[in-house]
Amino acid sequence: MDYKIAEFEKHNDRRGDLVVFLKKKELGKNQKIFGQIYFVTFKKKGTVRGNHYHKQWREWFGIVSGKLEVNLKDVRTGETAKINLAAASDKYIRLEIGPFIVHSFKSLSEYASMINYANREWSNKDTYIDKIMKANND
Q1: What residues contact 69, with CB distance under 8 A and at least 6 apart?
Q2: Higher pLDDT, 108 or 34
Q3: DSSP code at position 56
Q4: Is the dihedral of CA 46, 136, 2, 55 positive or negative?
Q5: How many whole angstroms separate alpha carbon 79 and alpha carbon 64?
Q6: What is the pLDDT of residue 68?
Q7: How far is CA 76 from CA 53, 56, 89, 101, 125, in A?
Q8: Would you state the CATH architecture of domain 3-12+35-129?
Q9: Which residues touch 87 (CB under 8 Å, ≥6 apart)?
Q10: Dist. CA 108–CA 112, nearest whole Å
């Protein structure tokens, strides 16, 4: 399955943390265009976002606050993975996923937020719904 977890140092002082989320060299040699950056929030525990995949996108997700359960599924092979990510970790953790990977996020905390870089701009034409995770109230 096309996904990677990467850990990065948090540079911190009395003012807070600074983390390098993504560098140009990590995008790959063929990536010459800028896609889009999203900031995503989860307003209560059990909130689910995602439940879709893209055929052309590669995405990078970083947890800014709170805790999230991430479910992944490769639509080509059926392989699945479940990952818990937390902003409170000593190291900053980033999740990278490739095309054809269904991704779904559930908040495990009362509030959570994440940053997301996609190598393409949003398009409903390249967004395919696949509900692999339910919210607590579904």
Answers
A1: 82, 83, 84, 105, 106, 108, 133
A2: 108
A3: S
A4: negative
A5: 27
A6: 96
A7: 11, 14, 32, 9, 19
A8: Sandwich (2.60)
A9: 63, 64, 65, 66, 67, 112
A10: 8
Domain boundary assignment for the chain? 3-12+35-129
What tens digit of pLDDT does each residue of 52-98 get? 999 999 999 999 999 999 999 999 999 999 999 998 777 888 999 99
Residue labelled with tokens 């911190």:
12
Whole-model pTM? 0.86
Collapsing DSSP to helix, strand or coil, 14 comes out as: coil
What's the mean pLDDT in 22-48? Answer: 83
Long-range contacts of 18-26 (CB under 8 A, 24+ apart): 19/62, 19/92, 21/60, 21/62, 21/94, 21/115, 21/117, 22/60, 22/94, 22/117, 26/60
